[in-house]
């Protein structure tokens, strides 16, 4: 075991992480109830217009022009220097929808790349299908974990999954970041990533508990965390580096996706320690739960 990790400090760190998780869950619930999620036009329906400007203006200049033309409200994102995506709700007047882009300054040389209308029924169906995908993935993970681990370790991993999803949704509620299909895809990725980390740590805890029932449970859990720490830090670090590049370089259309994925990976790594490795003891896990019963010489179980 690495000398710089003290058994008692690591145990206290795990317990503190569990307590912090409870606080963050409560904060997320408050955010979801009071502020709600800002759904994008993928779910609410609306008009999406894509423009190209051969002479790219500053973002402030474009926003000033759109404020004059799109009086019913809009949201704008920019990809690169000359690609613009403008989203409007369904409650817009015909005067606004009729070739408003042609009224932008001629000097910008605006080109209409495409315009599409998503009806409220289509948006509702997309939301239902996305929610069903998240529910199905969580259900499949629960079934898998129930066969792989003793119920306390399995339940802790399942709670960690729900914790991760709830905290990502709470973050989007508090910051009022637009929640669209790309963000829902990120949430699904977070579920898989979080489960992978929990399984690795859970497997190592099970191995140590099977090896010896005489060592204190906290010591066994801490040994499991230390032995997987390098793997966790390297995996999470490299993944976060990749997502950070998407966040910084891919432009506005993928910023919400990168935000969900980045925060989800951090939260998933945190919950693997604070919930996946700590909660089983709270639920009554003991080393004897993983001890194999050896048959006696006369064939009976002893």
TrEMBL record:
The keyword Transmembrane helix applies. GO terms for molecular function: protein-transporting ATPase activity. GO terms for cellular component: plasma membrane. The chain crosses the membrane at residues 12-33, 129-147, 154-175, 181-201, 232-250, 256-279. Keywords: Cell membrane, Membrane, Protein transport, Translocation, Transmembrane, Transmembrane helix, Transport. Residues 111-279 form the Protein export membrane protein SecD/SecF C-terminal domain. The keyword Iron does not apply. It holds the Pfam family Sec_GG. InterPro entries: SecD/SecF_arch_bac, SecD/SecF_bac, SecD/SecF_CS, SecD_SecF_C, SecD_SecF_C_bact, SecF_bac. SUPFAM superfamilies: Multidrug efflux transporter AcrB transmembrane domain (SSF82866). It is a multi-pass membrane protein. GO terms for biological process: intracellular protein transmembrane transport; protein targeting; protein transport by the Sec complex. It is found in: Cell membrane. Its main location: membrane. Part of the Sec protein translocase complex. Interacts with the SecYEG preprotein conducting channel. SecDF uses the proton motive force (PMF) to complete protein translocation after the ATP-dependent function of SecA. Forms a complex with SecD. Part of the essential Sec protein translocation apparatus which comprises SecA, SecYEG and auxiliary proteins SecDF-YajC and YidC. Belongs to the SecD/SecF family. SecF subfamily. This is Protein-export membrane protein SecF. The gene is secF.
